[in-house]
Amino acid sequence: MRARPPNQATLYLRRAGVALACVAALAGCEGERQSVVPGGDIEQGLRLVTQYQCGACHVIPGVQGAAGDEGPALDYIGRLSYIAGGIPNSPGNMVRWLRVPHAVKPGTEMPPMGLTEQEARHMAAYLYTLR
Ligand code: HEC
């Protein structure tokens, strides 16, 4: 017996195997969205943003009833280069901004909401999904 070259059917099965592996990899990424904020959890962030009623002053996609207009809409906050009119939009700055806005920008009208560092991290994780 000599080895035969692979026929059409085996080639098809090999391709299908490769395709399935890709689909599985993609599904993995979709299922668990990775946060760009160290220690921040996107789902918890959404819950907290809702609970603290940030939507009283902001339009926030994905947050029910968040339609306030005292502050800027947060639709594309994950894409902006600067927040609050001039602060570089990095995870560290965002977490600090959420906790103590007045310390980041004296005189700002955004009030401190009494967030813990951890809560602010979760919230920032959610906000960065808005792009
Ligand atoms: C009382 C109204 C009010 C509440 C409540 C409030 N904000 Fe704000 N927020 C503002 C205002 C006003 C600004 C603009 C501040 C500035 O530029 O000085 C702002 C700015 C921001 C920015 C920067 C936006 C940009 O485009 O630069 C983010 C992010 C943000 N707020 C998130 C939150 C989150 C999250 C909460 C809930 C924990 C929250 N805010 C609660 C009024 C509010």
UniProtKB/TrEMBL annotation:
Keywords tagged on the record: Heme, Iron, Metal-binding, Signal
InterPro entries assigned: Cyt_c-like_dom, Cyt_c-like_dom_sf
Signal peptide location: 1-27
Transmembrane segments: none
Listed Pfam families: Cytochrom_C
Domain spans labelled Cytochrome c: 40-131
Protein's name in the database: C-type cytochrome
Organism field: Massilia agri
